[in-house]
Structure formats: structure tokens, C-alpha cells
Design brief:
Blueprint (H helix, E strand, L loop, with lengths): L6 H15 L2 E4 L4 E5 L4 E5 L4 E2 L3 H5 L4 H10 L2 H4 L12
Length: 91
């Protein structure tokens, strides 16, 4: 079943694509990553759907740190399912 984002949520995500591409990512373990966005460092936990910047936690939309890690890990669809937070596909 496809997941659809609102226009505002989609705009939020599109706005963060370019900044997320500039981040440096350092794995901590399988699910956690340290992300340096040139201004701040943040810890992203893909398993908990959480970032230490708290934007992902509060808005329930990915911050630039989470998007950078998801892009690196090829988990964008599985991680950012906006309706129920369950992976769209597991392999």
C-alpha cells in the first residue's frame, strides 16, 4: 500500500535534500551514525527513528541528518514511512 505525504510534508523533505548531501556521516554501529552538517553534530538512530537534533522526533519528518544517513544506507522508503513508521519493504 503506497504512502502519500501532504504537500507541506513533501516540501519539507525536498527542502532538506541538498543540505543532507553535504553532511559527513560516521557509523557508530549498525543503526546509529554520527552526522556532521558543518554547523552541528548529531547522532541518528535509524532503529528508534530519532536524531539528537530532535527535529525528526518532534516533527515526525526527517531532519537533514536522518536524510543523509538514510541516503547512505539506501533506506529512505523503509525509514520514512510517514503513516505508520513500519518499513515498506524488508529484505
Amino acid at each position: 500500500m503506497p504512502t502519500f505525504l501532504t504537500h507541506d510534508a513533501n516540501a519539507h523533505i525536498k527542502q532538506r535534500i541538498l543540505p543532507s548531501q553535504r553532511c559527513e556521516i560516521h557509523p557508530i554501529d549498525f543503526h546509529r551514525f554520527k552526522v556532521d552538517d558543518k554547523w552541528n553534530e548529531a547522532i541518528v538512530d535509524l532503529e528508534q527513528h530519532s536524531c539528537s537534533c530532535r527535529e525528526w522526533d518532534l516533527d515526525e519528518l526527517p531532519c537533514i541528518h536522518a536524510m543523509a544517513v538514510a541516503r547512505l544506507a539506501y533506506k529512505i522508503e523503509a525509514t520514512f514511512n510517514a503513516t505508520d513508521r513500519e518499513p515498506i519493504w524488508e529484505g
